[in-house]
Every structure is written in C-alpha cells, then in structure tokens.
Amino acid sequence: MKNKKISERVERIKPSATLRISGIAKELKAKGEDVIDMSVGEPDFNTPENIINAGIKAMKEGKTKYAPTKGVPELIEAIVEKLRKDNGIKAEDENVIVTSGAKYAVYEAMMAILNKGDEVVLLDPSWVSYEACALLADAKPIWVAYYEDFRDAPIEEYISKKTKLIVINSPNNPLGIVYSKEFLKKIRDLALDYDIFVMSDEIYEKIIFEGEHHSIASFDDMFERTITINGFSKTYAMTGWRLGYAVAPEWIIKEMNKIQSHSISSPTTFVQYAGIEALKGDQSFVKRMVSEFKRRRDFLIDEFSEMDLEFAPPEGAFYIFVNVEMNSEKFCQEFLERYHVATTPGTAFGRQFNNWVRVSYATSFENIKEMIERFKKFRKREKNLFRLS
Ligand code: PMP
Ligand code: GLU
Known about the structure:
Radius of gyration: 21 Å
Strand content: 5-15%
Low-confidence stretches: none
CATH superfamily of the largest domain: Type I PLP-dependent aspartate aminotransferase-like (Major domain)
Bound molecules: 4'-deoxy-4'-aminopyridoxal-5'-phosphate, glutamic acid
Distance between the termini: 51 Å
Helix content: 40-55%
C-alpha cells in the first residue's frame, strides 16, 4: 500500500520510555545476558496466593463472559467501601468506573474532558503517560518548571485562562515524594479559584515510608472537580492483570463509560473477582512488601549519599531519582550496553531533568547491591575518560 499516512494524533507521541527500555532489558536477558532491570516500575513480588485463587475460582465458576461495561457491581461496591474507609472520599457506585489498568483510566478521563486548546498542567518531572494522553486528547501540556523544593511546585505561575486540568501524583513517580496536606490545599484553592479539574493519581498510596497520604477528592468542594485514579498493579503486585479504576462525578464517569463501551467493552471479568479479594482479603502482604521496599530504599539512600550524589528524598513508591551529572540518555544507554543495568533517563519524565535518572528498586536486594557495584565502576571509568580528554 502506498498511502501510509498515520494520524496527526499518533504522530505527536512516542512509545512509553519505561516499557520500551524494559523491553530491551528483557531481550538481552533472553539472550542469556546478566541484565539487572531497574527501569520499569513493577513490583518484583508475585501476586498473593489468595488473589490468584480468587481469579481461578471465578474462572471455574464461569465468570468468563462479558461483564457490565463499567465493571462488576460487587467490585464497584468494594471500591466505594475502600474509598470511604481509606480515603475519606464519599463516592457512590455511580462515581466509579473499573478499567483495564490505571493507565487506561488516565486515558479515558483525558479523552472525556479535554478539547483542542485546553491546557493540562503537569509537574516536571511527571510519570511518562500523562503528557502522551493529554496529547492524544488534543490538549496542550504545560510543564511547571524546576523548583528548589520538590514538594512545593509553583503551579500558580502556570495557570492561564485555558487551564482545564492539573495532574498530581502522590506518592510520586519518579520523585518518590509524598505531598503534604498544605501543598494539596494550595492546589485545591487554585482549582476552586480558577474553576479547574484535578486528576489525582494515587496508585502508590499504600507504598509509603514517611509522611501520610491525603486524597484531594476528600477536601471540601473538591469531589465535583476531581478525578481520582487508582489501581491494583502496585499495591497487590498485579501489573499483568490489568486492573484499575477512576472515581469522579457521575457525568464524567458516564462519558468515560461511553469510550469504554466502544473500546475494551469492559475489563476482564474474572480479573475483577480477583480485585474484590485484593480489596477485601488479608492485607498482610502489602505490609511485608512495603517493609522490603523500605529496606532497599534505605540502602540506596546510604550508597548515593556516600557517592555524594544529589537525589530527591524518596518517601514512597519504589523509585529514586538521582542526578548522575551527565546526559541521562547517554548514561542510560552506556549503563545498559556496557554494564547491563537498565534505568530510565530523566528526559522521559519532562523537560528539565536531563542529567537525572530514575532507578526503580522493585528488584531484589542482591540485584540492587550489584547495580551499585556496576555504577561505581561506570563512574570511575567516566572520571578517567574525563581526565584523559
Ligand atoms: N500511574 C502511575 C504514576 C504509574 O507509575 C503507573 C505505572 N504503570 C500507572 C499509573 C499505571 O498503572 P497500571 O496501568 O499498571 O494500573
Ligand atoms: N508505571 C511504571 C513505570 O513508570 C510501569 C510502566 C508504565 O506503565 O509506564 O515504570
């Protein structure tokens, strides 16, 4: 065929950097290379047994047909209960849509509310898919520039008449920081004063070592203008199950559901029954996983501090964002090709952190120790090269 013209929409975006790099790491591993993958944000734990069994039971019971497009009612009820108990969000069933992963909830929500010319405020650095989803929805991403204090971005300087949405993510990917109630109140005030929506991605809410998680949708007058995003991938190590959800005013959920009905039809039926078990069953797994992440985080903080490297102070999630003092794309490429360690360059997360790299510590302690050894060798070699040139 001669006419290979693609849509302008798709021309605006690149493949997800995190998934692309981990794909390369997987290929190298398949060739027998000793690769340490610290690129992708994916818990290295298996999904807890009780959740797996609930999925198998559902399949055996014939929960293998189409589900209601918005999700299985029992799961929606469990989510509503969880939101009240854990987040202080007073949602009803009509305010929830279950999606195939939290990423699809972000996509559907942006497709449902954004128009050409609308501006979407993103905090630099931000997770890789917000910008792409805003671009697919014809909107314009506006990056809030570098701030001295990672916890207090000067968002107010970036609001215009065209601002439709502010995206926040706490605990944050890639920074690992947890936003304070005061910072969230500042965002609430801006949203109310300028009549703006807020998308609050809370997918790491249970992975916290310091500080406390607050849901902005629970603040006065915020429910009607907040889309809360959450999912099962991180808390319950369920990345491959593809299960997430959005919570928003009913009129937005209805529009998202229209998109869902014409795209995926519904999230996989038996997976949703596993989701019910995840929310209602034993939660001790989460505690164990978080304490192991904390052990790894503490080790990395000590090592990077000893090397005198600048990094954002990780209080949650499972990333450490570190200044490697050289072009991050070059660093990541060399670190992978020469030392077989996969990490993600800061350029994937925004505009300004070109010398920063995201290291995901969702991998074994042994791998993390080995990564540090290889990192030291890399730095030594770089310093020698620098001296020679
Ligand atoms: N939000 C953030 C901040 C993430 O890091 C991820 C990780 N993929 C997601 C959303 C999407 O998660 P999933 O689609 O696996 O539920
Ligand atoms: N959220 C994870 C990450 O940032 C998974 C990959 C992705 O969905 O982008 O690495």
